């Protein structure tokens, strides 16, 4: 996932969670969280291994 895709997914997640005019879509929230966590996982593993 490119950094642009990552930023777009974070923006979409932010809108879904915080914009009162956007209907809540739980399945989309979970999907975005799964994709974002996959992007963040290598950094978290490397940090944990120190």
Architecture overview:
This protein is mainly α. It is 80% helix and 0% strand. The protein has two helices and no strands. This is Peptide chain release factor 1. It comes from Limobrevibacterium gyesilva.
Amino- and carboxy-terminal Cα gap: 24 Å
Task: Categorize the overall geometry.
Answer: elongated
Mean pLDDT: 88
Number of helices: 2
Q: From the alpha carbons, calculate the radius of gyration and give it in angstroms.
A: 13 Å
- State the low-pLDDT regions, or none: none
Percent strand equals: under 5%
* Secondary-structure content class: mainly alpha
Sheet with most strands: none
Q: Total number of β-strand segments?
A: 0
Helix content: over 70%
| SSE string | HH
Summarize this structure as a short list of keywords or feature phrases.
50 residues, mainly alpha, 2 helices, 80% helix, elongated
Annotate the secondary structure layout.
Blueprint: H1 3-18, H2 26-49
Short description:
With 50 residues, the chain is an all-alpha fold. The chain contains two helices and no strands.
């Amino acid at each position: 996932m490119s950094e642009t895709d990552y930023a777009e997914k974070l923006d979409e997640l932010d809108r879904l969670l915080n914009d009162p005019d956007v209907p809540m879509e739980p399945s989309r929230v979970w999907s975005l969280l799964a994709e974002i966590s996959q992007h963040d996982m290598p950094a978290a593993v490397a940090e944990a291994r120190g």
